[in-house]
Specification:
196 residues; mainly beta; 26 strands; globular
Length: 196
């Protein structure tokens, strides 16, 4: 069953998947498409045409500006901002107020299973790889590889993480998840799951 709080503002043509919940004071704009079992927290904003896969969580007061695309199982922490304007200005060089037609939005793409920590900012256009983690408060200005843990301003890779979200331990030429035992191989700065 889909749940939409009475105080939420959901556009008539937004698509909300079965089992999803949109909480108090959240706004879901025109043409947004949320998959099944998604959660949009209190005061969160989902921009026009944003696409979210199944099982995504957007926590309280996060701002997901269009044209962001979120894969399956993406976590967006409290007060995260996904931007959409590389060179923002309120006015044109002549001082006239800019309108929506005076710029082309660019989006943030977040791949399956990735997590963005509280108050992090992803400056579009960037792609956050599968199962990557962006630390709380980080500012992402470059693409993040699959399974990378990035932190800082600007964000840089500080560790590798597995699907459980915990840092991996090095074991010879491999990386191992201490929770699941899954093994990964690093090659030229890219981590991939070890094939059995």
């Amino acid at each position: 069953m889909t749940t939409i709080a009475a105080s939420a503002d959901v556009a008539d043509d937004a698509t909300i998947g079965e089992g999803s919940k949109v909480w108090h004071l959240a706004q879901v704009r025109e043409g947004a498409r949320l998959g099944e079992n998604c959660i949009v927290g209190r005061g969160a904003y989902i921009g026009s045409g944003v696409v979210m896969g199944d099982n995504c969580k957007v926590q309280n007061y996060a701002l997901v500006y269009e044209p962001a695309e979120l894969g399956q199982g993406v976590f967006i922490g409290p007060a995260v901002v996904l931007t959409n304007d590389t060179y923002p200005r309120a006015v044109a060089p002549d001082g006239s107020l800019k309108s929506a037609h005076d710029w082309t939005p660019v989006g943030v793409t977040i791949r399956d299973g990735a997590s963005i920590g509280a108050r992090a900012v992803c400056v579009a256009p960037v792609t956050i790889g599968r199962w990557a983690t962006v630390a709380a408060g980080a500012v992402v200005t470059k693409d993040v590889p699959d399974f990378a843990l990035v932190a800082g301003v600007p964000a840089r890779r500080v560790r590798w993480v597995g699907k459980a979200g915990v840092p991996l331990d090095q074991d010879g030429d491999a990386w191992v998840c201490p929770e699941t035992g899954e093994r990964y191989i690093e090659d030229a700065g890219i981590l991939r799951e070890e094939q059995s």
